[in-house]
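the two lines:
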Amino acid sequence: MYGWAGQRLRVDLSKGDIIKEPLSYEYRKKWIGGRGFNSDIIYNEVPPEMSPFDPRTRVCFGMGPLSGTAAPSTGRVTVSCKSPLTGGFGDSNMGGHWGAEVKYAGYDQIVVQGKAKKPVYIWIDDDKVEVRDASHIWGKFPRDADTIIKEELKDEDIHIVLIGPAGENLVRFACVFNDVYRAAGRTGTGAVIGSKNLKAIAVRGSGGVKIANPKEFFEICNRLRQKFKDDPMKIGLNTYGSLVLINFANRDGWFPWKNFQGGATPLANNMSGETHSKTVLKHREGCFACPICCGRFTEIKEGRWAGEYFGGPEYEHAVPTGPRVGIIEDANDIWHNARLTNDLGMDGIETGAVISTAMEWYQRGLISAKDTGGLDLEWGNEEVVDQLIQDIAYRQGFGDILAEGGDRAADKLGLGDKGHYYTITTRGMSLPGDDPRGLGFGYGLSFAVGTRGGCDHLRSLCCLELSGALYPGLNTKYLGDERPAKPTTTVGKPYMVYYEENQKAVTDCLNVCCFTTHWSYAVLTQDQLDYFNTCTGLDMTLDEFLEVGERVYNLERAYWARLMSGAREDVVPERFTKEPMPQGVEYQTNVGATLPIGEMLPKYFKYRDYEPGTGFPSERKLKQLGLEYVADDLKSLRKKYMSEAEKKKKKYYY
Amino acid sequence: MEKVLIYDQEKCTGCRSCVVGCSLYHEGECSKILSRVNIVKYESTGECYVAGCDLCTDPPCAAVCPTGACAVDPVTGIAKIDPDVCIGCKECMIHCPFGAIKIHPVTKKAFKCDLCEGREEGPVCADWCPGGAITWTSPELAVKAKKREKLHERITAATKAKEVS
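prediction for all of em together
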């Protein structure tokens, strides 16, 4: 077999069973890998009504046929579960080297189910798999647990997936790491792993990935890597990390200032990649087989946090517990907060988002010091942010309420619609630090419809919109029109989002990095198909390839449909449609902009072939994608959704 | 001008592009254990060490080889292992100061870097390295570049000092 390892490892922690299941040719061709395999398991094995913390629920780690190969950036892992934050379909994606190591150990996917009686970790040494005691590392930060496990197994070169204290304490947005700092941040996968009393999965793989046509595969990989050498996007990301985006974000007004009350601030350069690399950059870091290497290691040199070091931060990791909560003056505070969310094992985005939401409730007088246990939630108050991050992770005081996520917290505090107005979420999950009024209307549309809730800059990752200006002609190549390259236009955006969602779904199935797709000219979709075919020996066409992405996407959408979530929930936070973008800096380009979501949704529905009323995938589309059983599942729900939609006043949050 | 492989440990990001490229180029398979170049890394601090053949003038691997399988190639000037003569005794592996020789998991014979013999663009590891940690250059040029770097550092420091005063 080429590309794939050809088997799934299933570990049942209740029974102690370790099962290896072969993956058939048809199955591999239908789902490709990674996100495809995971979504299939979640849809079939985790019923929609099941609690995300039920021992019977599954958490899946998916690798793709390209994982561990020489194609650009093949170390990624997709982690999927029923999300404890949104209650719906959840997955998240991380870099590092663990995914490649699992492939070398001989598995395409790991599914964990059941619940251990006491804390355990799983040790996979090629075909030998055992469940070991983890009582001594329970409660430890990932970096310390990583060291202890490596000492115990007497091998420094193994790779380990880990959760932090937040995952153990079932914080609904806890995340999971591999290689200590590479996080699958979103949707609360860490809490589900914690609920199973599982602390870590350590892997040693001594095999390899066989390639169907090694000479041709080498030539393709070589050509792509040569293209990366002088690619402007690669140079920017390699030199400054993803923090390179800060100054662009500030200029184009998508910088998440104070819970999106503004889109720019004069001091943004304090935390830009340019400043970071001059002041606190320790060294650069790369995920497996990456031609870009955007990873950073940071060491704080001055002030009260001097001496702290950690892997990161990324743009999306640094802004939430920085400008989003009003901290910008001293960048060391921002680096410290990022370090803290990392060590405690929480999604930086959601942590910053819930704190900033609470700060806005405080600003608007919806809550007072009486609710917060005496904490003064003034914007930019570093002491309080530092305290709250720890309180959330250990579920203490007001932090315990915030650990439930923004929308749940609003309900617990009884804040009603007013409270929900300031939770910048869709389907119960907070948006990342990108304001769609500036970043682009395509992103805005993607936030409304993404199949893992509001996160979703990564479901579509509209490369064409983001780098349209940097790479003239790219949009014409893909969409036949250059106009969609402008972020703040609706022209061509519904089709762009439809295309990019399918494209990114298949990219996640291969489990290669989104940065090494058509974000630049370096790797176009045709190149991805070429390396996939030469690696696996398959002979897929471009249409078949993208159809796999569409299949995965529709399956995930159907999972939400079974939860009675459809067209009515395809909304963006009202802030973006009602409040025109204020001016933050003189040179800002999007002053006065709002997000015209209503213009784009109907057209997008047409491309997707969703039913106009319910927003469910149509029967015709599902059958065309080979998902007849899904069409059957949804049959009885279509009417039910329509009748409930009328009755239900409150929108579906979680 | 004769070229050599230069490893700059400070610049290594630990991405293993070199490792997987080497393995694919030589063995047609992507793997860590089949690669002639290797990276070890402390994941919690990010510090890396890239271990490849340093192309010694008096290679210990050749000196200790009991059968003559590992000997300096008169054409390229680097130590080369003939798998047909190698008995798999691992002496070269133990005596390489850089950990650059391994035993093949299937043949059980020693194998090492051959500079991607005949590849026009030079060794894959240097060609694919995204951070400039492995370079394929002449030692003279490398030394000159190093001196330039030092000079540049001094000028920058002087300019800064001037600005401050």
